[in-house]
Amino acid sequence: MTPTPEKVLGDAFDAVNARFEFQLSAREIGRVERTEGGIIGLTGFSRVGFDEVIEMSSGSKALAMNINEDSVAAVALSPGSVFQVGDTAERTHREVSIPVGEGLLGLVIDPLGTDLSTGAATVGSEHFSIDRRAPEILQRAPVQRPLHTGIKAIDATIPIGRGQRELILGDRQTGKTSLAVETILNQGEDMVCVYCAIGQRQSAVKRVIDLLHGSKMRDRSIILVASGDDPPGLQYLAPYSATSIAEWFMLQGHDVLIVYDDLTCHARAYRELSLLLDRPPGREAYPGDIFYLHARLLERATQLRSDLGGGSITALPIVETKAQDISAYIPTNLISITDGQLVLRRELFERGHFPALDIGRSVSRVGGKAQWPAFRSVSGDLKLFYSQFEELEAFARFGTRIDDQTRARLVRGRRVREALKQRAFEPQLPIEQIAILLAATQGGMDDFEIEDFADAEHRLLTHVRGSDLWLKTDLRQPLSEQQIETLLSDIDGVFRAHGKD
Ligand code: ATP
Ligand code: MG
To answer: What's the first-to-final CA gap in the chain, in angstroms?
Structure first.
């Protein structure tokens, strides 16, 4: 019987497929031809895939990134001296993956999953590729639950919701890392935190490790480090590895907070690799796909639908600006990718205004919906009031004669400014923040001199912490006029009892 044309065609396909699969899985041994600045030139690989891991005879690894007809350029994932011209190398048929799971909590690891305190590989419950696809739009839910940072200025004026991506932007040494770490320290048992250090100084990383490991969040956090001394290849992988670890927890229904410190260093590492790989430079010499790279990374942070477990990843990427220039290439990219930004200003930092948050330029595009309703009744127009006050103050500096009403607004504004200051690592509960903001915005503190403000604030906080009236306030409901009245008269009572008048 002659076979049907379909059968002939089917057999031919099967033969081609079998041959193709054989080629895909075939063992291939290559040779190191050159090593230069973290890039390894290899020959002898004809079927290596893009982003495939190549293992050297010494056991160290590299990532195939440029694939030419007769050679492959790979990015070293271990320091340079490990690679020698003439070494043999083998393809692994794998992309980079990382162990994920509960076992990682409390550890400090590198982007390939090595425990940095023991030097051994970590053991996870599963392995995740570091370059997973972001959840689809239909799997996502709106950002509706607050992520309480404990920092008044943020919670009141630029609230962050779980599942949001909020950029932290500022010059060198303006408190960017402190802000992010403080937010981690203020989380509770219900949050898993991942801190990813990219290209930072060892001393800065150590400071963060000490802070986190000396706190209650030690067993709820994972620190992933690719420091400035590590090869650029590892720095490039770091945020993706960290996100895969975070994703595992999100898929188990947990809320995760991830900090990328910082993406400027990440962009620089990628630029270095791209230039060494002879890829064409674009704006500010960055390769053209740097936007895509960061967008693909941050797209993975989201709030999942409740029938998919309801987990979330909130991302706080950090970016360093030069001379406050937020319109440079990488900052503008990231501003357009994220759902808002916290801008830190050097002048404020130098004046001792902590946190040095520029409220006028900072914005949270989705967090307002996630803010506690009770909070909203207190801080609703705070941002507008404060911005107007700053303008008014700048104007009043010219020595213009001002009327009584304007003077009163200046007095009030200065009290609000004091109220928004907060010392590092002194987090406040939502109800404590509400008390101080109510007192400052409604005039309860107008009679205090600025120097006495901290003292008055302390007194009020001590009262609130022991008062049922405050502690029993339901944050899930907006405050009624009458409630606000009662709270205000309570505040007045506290100050009067201590001889405000
Ligand atoms: P870099 O650009 O080097 O990464 P950074 O912007 O991350 O710096 P930090 O390292 O967080 O800044 O802080 C710089 C210094 O300012 C630190 O010594 C820190 O202790 C101090 N600092 C930061 N925030 C506060 C604060 N709220 N109150 C008091 N000091 C602070
Ligand atoms: Mg820093």
So the answer is: 110
Ligand nearest to the CA of 420: 1
List the one residue out of 393, 469, 404 whose CA is nearest residue 435: 469
pTM value > 0.85: yes
Q: Whose CA is nearest to atom 8 of ligand 1?
A: 173
CB of residue 254 inside a 6 A radius of ligand 1: no
All structural domains of the chain, each given as residue ranges with its CATH number in brackets, are 21-95 (2.40.30.20), 99-369 (3.40.50.300), 376-497 (1.20.150.20)
174 lines ligand 1 (CB under 6 A): yes
CA distance 309 to 346: 42
Q: How much distance in Å is there from the Cα of 354 to the middle of ligand 1?
A: 10
Residue pair 438/415 in contact (Cβ under 8 Å)? The answer is: no
Q: Which ligand is nearest to the CA of 170?
A: 1
Distance 394 CA to ligand 1 centre (A): 27
Per DSSP, the three-state class of 276 is helix
Structure confidence by residue, pLDDT tens digits, 244-265: 999 999 999 999 999 999 999 9
271 is catalytic: no
The DSSP code for 423 is: -
- The number of beta carbons lying within 10 Å of the beta carbon of residue 26 is 11
- pLDDT, residue 3, reads 75
> How far apart are alpha carbons 485 and 494 in whole angstroms?
14
| Closest residue by CA, ligand 1 atom 23 | 175
* Contacts with 128 (C-beta within 8 Å, 6 or more apart), sequence order: 97, 98, 100, 244, 245, 247, 248
- The chain-wide mean pLDDT, for the chain, equals 90
Task: Indicate which residue's Cα is closest to atom 13 of ligand 1.
Answer: 175
